[in-house]
Design brief:
single chain; mainly beta; Porin; 4-stranded antiparallel beta sheet; 1 helix; 14 strands
Amino acid sequence: MNRLRGMLVWFTCISLSVGATIVVASADDGMSDGSLRSKKWEVLLAPQYTLAKNLGFDGGTTAKINDTWGFGLQVGYNFNEHWNLGGLFSWSNPGYQAVVQPAAGNPSLLRPISGSIETTTFALAATYNVLAGPLTPYIDTNIGGTYVNTDIAAGPPVAGCFWDPWYGYICGVSQPTKSDTLLSFGVGGGVRWDINSVVLVRGGIRQQYVDLPNTGIPGFTTIKLDVGFKF
């Protein structure tokens, strides 16, 4: 949790710094080019909140993924006032509680476990702004991959020494954990306001689907606020 708070603080500070720099540099620009979005690149920085999700797995095991804060980054190009195509990155680290069902023939009792799941998504994103004016509804969709690290042991602890790029020569014991990169896709929408030719804000909601093994393709609901800068 301390790591997450620290990353969010840094993310917020960087967002504010970048925004202040661009606004000051472009203070006299106004609407001089006559275009709100067309033929412009934009960067969107987004604190986001993902709602809790209950999952059921093959064999009877269940899990609750807690609600959590995360952040996102989106960089795209506006082909005109309506269409934008770009790349999407998002990260979150929710906690979870699971009840593990023993397999048939196993006399063990139900076993509760808990931990955290780190998720990182990279995707291609397309956005359609319904209106050409500064205040418009929008819809967006994306497809890509989500890296999931479950914090569940995937093997016995491994002892040894290695060279870390930051800390140098280190010896110790590490625990491999279950992780995978999975297909994901999403759809969402909301409202966009282009404050001027440089700054914009968006508020919206997205349903992101991840092809998780043994449980189908569950959807996770994320509420987000984008602060954007055009250039």
